[in-house]
Backbone:
């Protein structure tokens, strides 16, 4: 008898489906739909539509719906035993909002399996496209909400994050201000996660504590919608929001549309969906104090499991509810792989050569310091991008290769100090996590063991594992999170990078220097040139 659990992940560029089999401890099926390639009619580039001055970034929610149907069809064509799937959960890119009118709920109840979802749902939207996490057009609304909540500190204490451009609350406020009539006609506002969960459920699905925390509307302590935050955002907002619930909730059974069309079992349980970062926490296996992960992707993220609630009063990092019922921290950088690529391409390197140069160059970069803001940065906030180099220029090959990597990890160490629980081990995932030179620098700068995994699809895997955990708990076949996760994550196959004690003091000093340079450039601080010269004298 197979025990199959299905996880979906609707990310910025693609939809992923993954099935785990708990009777053989194997992932038995994976499928991806790339939006640009397989749904070209939505005219996306990397899954998004960029409007106006590059600050407005949207996607069409019908594209996600069509991808869902396409991926189920592929699963059916591949003769997967769909009727053996016991439970489903999912993951969505965080923060993006979907605006629906009063037809939505009615349509969901009347779905006809002989027709497509898109043809039946295309009249259900009060706003045709959805602003997503890459949108940075709401600076004005952020300012207004922050002020209404009593300023930076009280806003962060209330919702667990600064009021951010990409978060849902400021996006909702902007829609209310610019399109009051369409806002009035909006019956319900979903996140990407709860929108897709609603389609599977056949009625509006709740939002979980993980994704809810990315809206600037949830009280981080009570984990409920907060009246003050709702009022600061838009009128009558509570009645337009779904319920908010625990990340382990079983929200019902799969809608008859999918049972009849694809052959699912009518008793297939649906577990509330969550955001991609909370799901990845499980898909990577971070359920213990002292475990953090760095995902080196389009944007770089640093996230960790938290046993207790910590908040960043500087307003750079976020706290979300974790699927375990605890908390997680997240710091998101825009200058990730695209910034590394700028240097790689300038010197016509491939990643192998890049890594070799990094390994050959000296830790501390002979005192050369870079502030790598190739693009506007979230942490620290930099709205007008510019790259700063101290002690070298843009033609210095080794200086630039080491400069960008040391800058990225010094910045991560510096801006994660607010998290009270220090990492004792860091898991590295994402594209650049196969680059040995990069990971050794990471271990040395953080003075921590780094473990690199061949993780792919951690958000979809996390969703499938969450589905399994809730299902077994509901049947009184209780499994711990460790039991659920360790069956599917191969710790033996990971490569470990041990920090080199020889560089501990050097990087402590360099961290201070780096912080002084950030202050010098971003906060009109004192020029740290003299300290840089002393650093060179001490180490080189
Ligand atoms: C997190 C964030 C992104 C999105 C897209 O705050 O904005 O990681 O979740 O993946």
Residues:
């Amino acid at each position: 008898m197979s025990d199959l659990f299905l996880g979906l992940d609707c990310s910025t560029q693609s939809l992923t489906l993954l099935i785990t089999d708990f009777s053989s401890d194997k992932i038995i099926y994976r499928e991806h739909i790339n939006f640009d390639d397989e749904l070209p009619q939505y005219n996306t580039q990397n899954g998004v539509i960029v409007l106006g001055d590059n600050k407005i970034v949207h996607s069409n929610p019908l594209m996600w719906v069509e991808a869902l149907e396409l991926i189920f069809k592929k699963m059916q064509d591949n003769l997967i035993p769909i009727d053996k799937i016991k439970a489903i959960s999912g993951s969505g890119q965080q923060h993006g909002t979907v605006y629906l009118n009063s037809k939505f709920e009615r349509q969901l109840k009347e779905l006809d399996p002989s027709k497509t979802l898109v043809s039946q749902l295309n009249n259900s939207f009060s706003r045709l496209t959805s602003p997503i996490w890459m949108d940075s057009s709401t600076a004005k609304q952020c300012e207004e909400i922050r002020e209404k909540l009593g300023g930076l500190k009280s806003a962060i204490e209330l919702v667990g994050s600064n009021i951010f451009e990409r978060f849902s609350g400021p996006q909702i406020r902007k829609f209310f201000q610019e399109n009051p009539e369409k806002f009035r006609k909006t019956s319900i506002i979903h996140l990407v996660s709860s929108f897709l969960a609603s389609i599977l459920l056949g009625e509006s699905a709740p939002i979980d504590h993980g994704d809810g925390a990315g809206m600037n509307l949830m009280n981080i302590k009570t984990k409920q919608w907060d009246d003050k935050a709702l009022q600061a955002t838009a009128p009558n907002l509570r009645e337009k929001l779904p319920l908010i619930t625990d990340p382990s909730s079983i929200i019902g059974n799969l809608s008859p549309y999918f049972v009849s069309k694809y052959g699912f079992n009518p008793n297939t349980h649906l577990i509330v969906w969550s955001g991609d970062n909370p799901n990845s926490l499980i898909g990577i296996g971070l359920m213990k104090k002292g475990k953090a992960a760095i995902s080196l992707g389009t944007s770089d993220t640093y996230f960790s499991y938290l046993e207790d609630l910590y908040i960043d009063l500087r307003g750079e990092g976020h706290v979300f509810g974790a699927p375990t019922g605890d908390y997680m921290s997240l710091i998101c950088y825009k200058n990730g792989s695209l910034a590394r690529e700028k240097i790689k391409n300038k010197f016509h390197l491939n990643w192998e050569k890049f890594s070799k140069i990094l390994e050959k160059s000296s830790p501390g970069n002979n005192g050369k310091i870079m502030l790598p803001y190739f693009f506007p940065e979230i942490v620290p906030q930099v709205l007008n991008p510019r790259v700063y180099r101290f002690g070298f220029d843009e033609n210095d090959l080794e200086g630039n290769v080491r400069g960008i990597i040391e800058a990225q990890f010094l910045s991560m160490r510096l801006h994660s100090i607010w998290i009270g629980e220090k990492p004792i081990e860091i898991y590295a995932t994402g594209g650049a996590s196969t680059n040995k030179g990069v990971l050794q620098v990471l271990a040395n700068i953080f003075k921590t063991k780094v473990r690199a995994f061949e993780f792919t699809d951690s958000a979809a895997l996390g969703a499938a594992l969450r589905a399994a955990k809730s299902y077994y708990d509901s049947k009184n076949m209780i499994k711990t999170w460790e039991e659920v996760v360790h069956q599917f994550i191969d710790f033996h196959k990971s490569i470990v990078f041990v920090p080199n004690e020889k560089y501990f003091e050097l990087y402590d000093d360099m961290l201070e220097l780096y912080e002084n340079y950030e202050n010098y450039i971003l906060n009109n601080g004192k020029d740290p040139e003299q300290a840089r010269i002393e650093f060179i004298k001490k180490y080189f």
User: Anything to note?
Assistant: The domain at 4-278 is CATH 3.30.420.40 (Nucleotidyltransferase; domain 5). The radius of gyration is 23 Å. The longest helix spans residues 397-415.
